[in-house]
Amino acid sequence: MSDFLRSTTSGSTDMAARKEALMNSIRSEIALLSVQELMNKGTEKCFAKCVTKPGSSLSNSEQTCLDRCLDRYMDAFTLVSRTYIGRVSKERQEPS
């Protein structure tokens, strides 16, 4: 009987570990998709703003505009992400 209880307990521990691993994998995939979406949207918006007459190459002013635009886009994303993570962390620490 004690073997049965041990196997059930270790089985649920193993199941919890697999569930946690799956959740971590899903979180990683979501994070990757978010970064890809960020890059795609940033590229679209900055291209539309900075490249008014597409050609075979970018002018110096277009390159500078794209660099600055993407930097601002990333800075804004970083600020929002840090604020959101801080808020979620704070909510998790507060007693229910």
Mean pLDDT: 85
Structural class: mainly alpha
The assigned CATH architecture is Orthogonal Bundle
User: How far is the first residue's CA from the last residue's CA?
Assistant: 39 Å
Shape: elongated
The structural domain count equals: 1
Q: What is the CATH topology descriptor?
A: Helix Hairpins
Sheet bearing the most strands, described?
Answer: none
Helical run tally: 2
What quaternary form is this? single chain
CATH homologous group name: Mitochondrial import inner membrane translocase subunit tim13 like domains
Strand content: under 5%
How does this structure look, described?
With 96 residues, the chain is mostly helical. It has one domain: Mitochondrial import inner membrane translocase subunit tim13 like domains (Helix Hairpins). It has 2 helices and no strands. The protein has helices at residues 2-50, 60-93. The longest helix has 49 residues, at 2-50. The protein is elongated and about 65 Å long. The mean pLDDT is 85.
Describe the structure concisely for a colleague.
The chain has 96 residues and is mainly α. The protein contains 2 helices and no strands.
What is the topology?
Layout: H1 2-50, H2 60-93
Main location: mitochondrion
GO molecular function, one term: metal ion binding
GO cellular component, one term: mitochondrial intermembrane space chaperone complex
Task: Give descriptors for this structure.
single chain; 96 residues; mainly alpha; disulfide bond; transport; metal ion binding; Mitochondrial import inner membrane translocase subunit; Tim10-like
